[in-house]
Amino acid sequence: MSILAIGTVAFDVIETPFKSAEQVLGGSATYITLAARYFTDPVRLVAVVGNDFPESYINILRDQGVDLGGLEVDAEGKTFAWGGRYHYDLNQRDTLYTHLNVLETFDPVVPEAYRKSRVVCLGNLDPDIQRRVLDQMDGPELVVCDTMNFWIENTPQSLRMLLKRIDCLIINDSEARELAEEPNLIVAARLIRAMGPRVLVIKKGEHGAMLFIDDVVFVAPAYPLEDIQDPTGAGDVFMGGFAGYIAREEHINTEALKRAVIYGSAMASFSVERFGPDRLLDLTEEEINTRLDAFRDLSTIPTIVPLVGITP
Amino acid sequence: MSILAIGTVAFDVIETPFKSAEQVLGGSATYITLAARYFTDPVRLVAVVGNDFPESYINILRDQGVDLGGLEVDAEGKTFAWGGRYHYDLNQRDTLYTHLNVLETFDPVVPEAYRKSRVVCLGNLDPDIQRRVLDQMDGPELVVCDTMNFWIENTPQSLRMLLKRIDCLIINDSEARELAEEPNLIVAARLIRAMGPRVLVIKKGEHGAMLFIDDVVFVAPAYPLEDIQDPTGAGDVFMGGFAGYIAREEHINTEALKRAVIYGSAMASFSVERFGPDRLLDLTEEEINTRLDAFRDLSTIPTIVPLVGITP
């Protein structure tokens, strides 16, 4: 079923201990849609690029089955550009620069044919822009949203207004602690859900992810990877796998959301295996299914016989 | 079946944001045995205390069913004492002081009746002392060992000799990275197991625990706690629950070790709910069994139908 994703389509400069490159195809909407398209169709992208965005990159997205009817080309400006340098351990990175370029004047227009999309994915962007997209939608069944510390710190009021209108927030653990102003992640989850979203997913990188819905907590492991090449976009890929899978499910309930967390985790684990979005371009059905089995093996607790007669 | 634990029996000074107290019953051997005794019998303790150690503390351990035939009272000295102050978020603490006292001259003697113990638990201590205990044992089926950054940094040679003689190392994630000199935890796990132990458990606090054995990785969640009162001893309690449960199992295999990780995690989750070792003194069978069910609910992945026909 249909999914719409808004976010950035970008030129990334990525420096890792293993490889560095410029003009890498990147951005939250790119990673979200490249992951989501494995699960559902159509996958609709709403974003803006500049006059310097090459036809070859547009073809990559189109060849992967992404619907580009909402990709605006701003003839007056340059494509959003981000540069990051990863430390030796790949867990930390420095942002080298962020050039907003065409994003500075971006006022998203959701094409008429997109307004009834079942799932809406609000990739990391100014919360004002995220809300303007929601204003144009016609009763989506699930609104999934990402944000980051920059918006938590600089546009808290706008973010709070947005949180009241979304169903599911997906953020990482440091962002959750910062948003809730609370170090205990379980307390933070409760406080954040009181701000609006019924569903909360907290991503913890190498420590997996947690899902909170109603009174349920679900803990998903991370796939144990010895060889991580490039973490760029992993959070967006998680969101794309999560939301794409949800769009595929007939009923969006707790069990479906748990499965979606595993699919999101699996897609993220693939993404970091190669540089930029490369790994997302040639995944097979068999590879995804095999990794799902691996997630089950990782976390399945063997049968336990309850203790009897142990109290002295 | 039988388990022997060596470690410290201590006076702790604990300062948390909620409560502070002096002369709290503590030490690795205390926490290990108080947890292990829920699972197996006998639970044998080998440790030393000083002339200041009160009869009432001895009675606490004895009343909980801990076999104290190996508890030496050194009439010449004072009991090992440790003081710690927790930060507001309880994830970090400062050590206020460590007075070795009677530990400085401790030369453990394993009573004859203890030498055939099935499982040996080497609580955190000087690796030389841990090895002198192993020298006195008569073919234990499983040797479980803890250590800490102090020994990794200050007695690396002695620790390396010890690692060749143990079956299972239980350490936290920062210790694992330091011991292996490797930031990637999965790579670190491989390097550490190449140092000797066939089984490795890495504790990650609020992020759960990981078990490595042969080609198997098992990821256990942490129990989601909103209200943590005192983390003191949680790692030792994990070890006590883990090793105590293993001593109870007929066959020590991969499935049994996975179950043991869950029991260790469950016991640690209880321990932090109250101050010092208090929570370990009145646990019931029903509470433990209920928490085990909660761990299963936390991490069970719903049935997933493999994807078919997704590749464009």
Topology overview:
Two copies of one chain form a homodimer.
Chain A (H helix, E strand, L loop, with lengths): L2 E4 L3 E6 L4 E7 L1 H9 L6 E8 L4 H9 L2 E9 L6 E6 L6 E7 L19 E4 L4 H10 L5 E5 L2 H6 L1 H8 L4 E5 H8 L4 H10 L4 E5 L5 E5 L2 E5 L13 H15 L5 H18 L13 H15 L13
Parallel strand pairs in A: 1-4, 1-8, 2-6, 4-5, 8-9, 9-10, 10-11
Antiparallel strand pairs in A: 2-3, 6-7, 11-12, 12-13
Oligomer: homodimer
What percent strand of chain A? 15-25%
Q: How confident is the prediction overall: mean pLDDT of chain A? A: 95
CATH topology of chain A: UDP-N-acetylmuramoyl-L-alanine:D-glutamate ligase
Q: Would you identify the CATH architecture of chain A?
A: 3-Layer(aba) Sandwich
- Can you tell me the residue ranges of chain A where pLDDT is under 50 for at least 5 consecutive residues? none
**Strand order in space, largest sheet of chain A:** 5-4-1-8-9-10-11-12-13
Radius of gyration of chain A: 19 Å
Query: Helix coverage percent of residues of chain A?
Result: 25-40%
Measured by residues with Cβ under 8 Å of the partner chain's Cβ, the largest interface is: A-B, 57 and 57 residues
Number of strands of chain A: 13
